[in-house]
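step 4 of 6: structure.
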Amino acid sequence: MTALSPFESRTSSSGVLRKMLRNNPQLLFGLLIVGVILLMAICAPLLTSYDPTEQDFLSTLQGPSADHLLGTDNLGRDLWARLLYGARVDLFLASVAVVLPFIIGSTIGALCGYFGGWFDTIVMRIADIVVAFPFYVLVISLVFILGNGVSSIIVAISIISWVAYARIIRAEAMVLSATNFMDALHVGGLGVPRIIFRHLMPNVLSQAIVYAMSDIVANIGVIVTLSYFGLGIVPPTPDWGNMMSEGQPFFAGGIYTLMLIPAVAVIVTSYGLSLIGDGLATALRVKR
Amino acid sequence: MMEQTATAAALQIDGLCVSARIGDRSYKALDSVALSVERGEARGLVGESGSGKSLTLRAVMGLLPPNLEVTGGAIRFRGQDLLADGGKLLHSIRGTGISMVFQEPAVALNPVMKVGQQIVDGVAWRRGLGRRQAKELAAELLTQVGIKDPEHWANAYPHQLSGGMRQRVMIASAIASQPEIILCDEPTTALDVTIQAQILKLFKALKTDLGAGLLYVTHDLSVVAEFCDSLTVMYAGRTVEQSDDLAALIAAPAHPYTRALLAAVPRIRGPVRRLRGLASSAPPLTEREQTVAPPMVPIGPGRQVAPFTHEDERFFSRDDEA
Amino acid sequence: MTRSELVAEGLSVTFPGGMRALRDVNLRVGEREIVGLVGESGSGKSTLGRVIVGLQHSYSGTLTFAGEALDPRRTTKQRGAIQMVFQDPYASLDPRMTVWQLLDELLSVHRIGSGREDRRHRCEDLMRRVHLPVAMLDSRPVGMSGGQRQRVAIARALAVEPRFLVADEPTAALDVSVQARIINLFADLREEMGLSQLFISHNLAVVRSLCDRVAVIYRGEIVEMAATDAIFEAPQHDYTRQLLAAAPDLP
C-alpha cells in the first residue's frame, strides 16, 4: 500500500470508493444502518412467517416470546411482522416521494440558473408562494383534497418539495455561470440541452443529492405523521405511523411497546439517513 | 522598545525545516531554509508555486496548516528564537513585532467591520486607546498609506473600496503596530499594473519612513526588481541562491535555476527575444530528495549559492526547442 | 500588410444600466497576425473579446471574418472558426471529464474525424501540439497544474480547427516561469498553423514578446494602435505612457 498523497490524482475507481469509505466513518455507518434496515424490509417474508394483517384474537397484547419476537398488538397481529412490512411501505414511499421532486426541482433549477431572465423570475415567484404556506398545513390540505392513499401522498409531497431542489440547483448553477465554465462550452459550439444536461447539471447535483438524504428523513416524518392522523396509509396496511397511532391508547395503560417500537424504528432510520447525508456532503465536495 | 543586539538581524531564519505528514510518512516541505532581513531592508523571496516561499512566511507567523510542523532550525526575531518556548514568544510578537499583508485583501478583511475600526482594532485594545484616539490613529494610518479623505473612508466597509484601496487598508492595518518586520505574500498579484506600481511605491516609502524590514514573496522577478534591495531564490523547499545586492544577482546569477527563472521573464526594455520556459516545476513533495540540503556557500560579499552538480539544462523545458 | 482576417468596425456595447463598455471600436487583425489588446480591469478589453467570439450578442457595429459578415447569432461553423482561451484554467474545464472526453465531445459535435479511432488520433496530435504527454488524455483536469490545464484548454480551442484565436489573459493566473512556455506555444501556433490571434492582456511585457501590433484600450475606447516597437519606443497617448511607466521590469 502506498502512502496516500493529496498530490496523487489517478486512482482506480474502486480504490477511490474504498478510500472514501475508510476516510468517511459517517457515510460508512449510515450505509450500514440503512442497508440493514433495507435488507430486512426486502427480506421480510424470510424473517417472519406471520402475515402482518392477520388477526389472532386468542393472543392479543402479548409480550415478546419465542412465537412473537416483539409480541402482538391489540388485535393479536405480530408486531415484528408489522414492523418489517411497515418498513417496506414507508421506505418505498419516502424514496419515491424524493425521486419525483428531485428530478422536477433539479431540472427547473438548472433551467432557471441557465436562462435567468423572466423565466427565472416567474418560477422563483411561484416557489415563493409554495413555501409561504406552513409545510404541514399544505401537505395535510393537499392530501385532504386528493384523498387518502399512496399516490396522493407522493403528489402532495412533490408539489411542495421541488422548490428546495430548484433553489439549490439554481444557486449552484448561477455560481458556475459566473465563471468561464459556461462561456467555454458556448464557444465550443455545444447545444443548449447538452450544456444543461451533460455539463451544468452533473456538476451541481451533489448538493441536491446531499439534500435528498435529509429529504427522505423529512418524508418519513410526513408519511408517518399523515398516517398517525389517519390521512396517509389506510389500515390494515401496516405503516410505522398507523402502528403508532393504534398503539397510543395503550401507552397510558402501561403497554409502551406498541408505540415505542415503531417510534424507535423511525428514529434509527432517520439517523442512518442523516449520517449518509453528512457523509455524502463530505465525499461529494467538488474537487477543482 | 526592546534592547537591540548589535549583530542580530531583525529577522533571521536558520536551517528551517518543515515536514508534511501525508498518510503515515513525512516529507520535507522546507529543507534548511536560511535568510535574514534587516530593518529598513526589502528582501524579495522568489520561487515558483510549490517552492515553499509562502510556507516560509507561514512558518514565521506560526500559521502552518495542521499536517505541517517545524522539525528543525530557528526563526530569530531580534536574536531571540521564536520557536524556543513553545510558541509563547511568537504569539506576543505576531501582529506587533511582525505583521503580514496577504494576497487577497478581499478575503483577509472582515466584511462587516468598518475599515477604520478594523485597522486599529488590535492596537487600540493593546494600548488602551479611547474611541476618539482610535479614530484619530485610523485616520493617520489611512493618510500614511495614501488614502485621501481618511475620515470618510474610515467609515466605509471593505466592499465599498476598490481592490487597490483594500490593499492599502490591509497595509495600514499591518503597520498600525509599527512592526519591525512586514511579511508580504504576493500583495499586488490581483491588482492592475498602475495600481501595482502605486502599491510598490508605497512599500518603498514605508520601508524608509518606518524603518521596517520587508520580506516580499512573489513568483514575478520583475516585481521585486522594482523595489527590493536583496533577493533570495527558492526551489523545491530549499534556498538555492541569495544576495544582499539584488542587482548584482540579476546581473550575474550563479545557480542554474536562477538563470532559468530569469530567462522566463518577459521584458519591457532591451532586445525582444524568445522566452525560455522552465521545465515542469519543482517535483511534488513525495518525490523530492530526502537527504539534508547542503548549506549554501559564500561566493562573494553578501552572496551565497547552494552547491549544484547538475548541468544547466535540467531546469529548461524541452518543448521550446521543438 | 497582410490580408485582413478579422475586421471590427464601430463596435459599441452598452450594458443594461447604461454602462458603456465599448465605444466605437475599430480593430483589424490580419492573416497570421497576433494583435495584442492591452488595458486594465474595466477597460472593456474582455468585452471586446466576447463580442468577437460571439459570447456577447448585443452590440452595434459590424464584424467581418474572412470576408464574411458575422451576425450576433452564429452558425456552428462560424463558432468553430473563432475560438477562445480563458484566463482561469481552473474554471473553464469540466472537472468530471477526462481530457479525451472533453476533446472528443467537441470533435463529435463539429463532425470532425471519421469514427472513434480517427478522433482518438486527432486528440493525440492535439496533445503533442500543446506539448502534453499523450497519456494525459485519460486523466482529468483535477490534479493537473495550472499550466497543464491551460494547455488542455488550448487543445480544446484547437480541436475544432479554428482560424482565429482570442486569448483572454491566458497567463494571468500562472507563474511567470509557466507563462513563458504558454506564450511560446501561442507563438508556435502562429508559425506552424498560421493561426491569427487577438491576445488580451494587462501585462505589457508579455504582449511585447508575442505580438506584432498592439491596441491600447482605455474606458472602452482604443486610444492607440500601432506596431509593437512603435508602442514601446514611441508611445503617443498619455495613457500608454502611464502604463509603460507603471510596468515592472528587470534592471
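step 5 of 6: annotate
 - The interface with chain B takes residues 3-8 of chain A (CB under 8 Å).
 - Confidence is low (pLDDT under 50) at residues 1-11 of chain A.
step 6 of 6: archive
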